[in-house]
User: Fold this.
Amino acid sequence: QVQLVESGGTLVQAGDSLRLSCAASGRTLSTHLMGWFRQAPGKEREFLATIRWTTGETYYADSVKGRFTISRDSAKNTAYLQMSSLKPEDTAVYYCAGGGGRGSYYGTRPLDYDYWGQGTQVTVSS
Assistant:
């Protein structure tokens, strides 16, 4: 089993930056891909970014490319999502997820992942 714990969500103002963290524990050697998603009330879960743990290869949704950056610190078993130029439309619950390789290469769908964090709320005021 792998456990993911997210942190960093808070209330910010439009234009601010924020970094979310996702700490992994357990059988982390089985995790090949980690991703970030978000979900606002009444909307489907939206793909944001993925990173391959071994190589650091990243892939982004067009909607956040240039504003959001995914990274990882292997020594800390932690993934990050650095967000800049935040907008009220970015308000959502943000989730990190891990996959063992059963899903697609880019991991853009929730079904590509095996386990999820609890989510952390990000609220951007205008």
In short: The chain has a mean pLDDT of 94. The radius of gyration is 14 Å. The CA atoms of residues 31 and 100 lie 5 Å apart. The longest strand covers residues 18-26.
